[in-house]
Amino acid sequence: MTENPARQTDQDWAGAVPVGRPVAWSNRQGSSQVGAESGGLMAATRQDLSVPSRSRSARVGRRRLEAVRGHLSERDWAILATVAAHRFVTTAQLEAFHFAGHASQMSGARVCRRVLERLRRERVLGTLERRVGGIRAGSASYVWHVDAVGDRLLRDAEPRRTRRRRYEPSLHFLRHTLAVVDTHLSLLRLSRDGRVELIQVDAEPACHRRYPGLGGGTITLKSDLFAVTVSGEFEDSWFIEVDLATESLPRLVAKCQEYEAYRRSGVEEAARGVFPIVVWTIETERRREALLAAIATDANLRSDLYRVIAPDQLGALVSGGAS
């Protein structure tokens, strides 16, 4: 049954979040899909390269734009904000973010797909050619991005925002992006379970930090996520790096040295009063041990500022606090 875009049922509003709040504030209730939302990526017919995607004209008339804007719900805006923040998000991940408050997972999934299909018809969101989990997964296999109307809505709300170029990302980039979204969802699950209070989560580029270099130029530190949590009486800050074993160990150590250079600049502590713990989530034990050993033997790095863990250890680390 096709959803009437101008009229949403009470069930459609379950789990909606206010406009303007961080994505992490949505849906305090749990979701059984959190942590496994990205699934396996299905190869697209095109080569694994970042190339412009085929799409309809990006031109959007003012009358049509205002018509779409007029009937978007608060949850629609929250979904758009989530996709804009992470660039690419799967159907299952959006379901976990914004549709976890339904009576059953099946009803939540059904409403999620209906809402996303409406947003796609209105060109608020679009889907990539590459899918997650294969064609047999149907609409659950889609990977969503901001489409032309959604981009115009966002740029109208933020005049300094630049037009987003639509493209089909490489497999490597997409896998990493979806893994970062899963990490965000892991933090959100902790909040919904009452183990921590999730104050803030920033994805790229909002989590980037700019600071002056030695030669007078500006350097940008690019982490995957920045998060602020409260556990007990303490507030903790975290820079999070999601490793998929695609970079060499020297490159990981070099990234740690970038964090050390930023720490020594004093910019973060001047702004926040504390320097965040740097968390590396790494799948294999051998790779974790190698990075820990490299950090410990590097005289220029403070090993107490780093935590190297398996992805499934993030909850225990964050709920236990940074100390």
From TrEMBL:
Q: Where is the composition biased (Polar residues)?
A: 26-35
Annotated spans, Disordered: 1-40
Q: State the name under which the record lists this protein.
A: Replication-relaxation
Native species of this protein?
Rhodococcus spelaei
| InterPro entries listed in its UniProt record | Replic_Relax
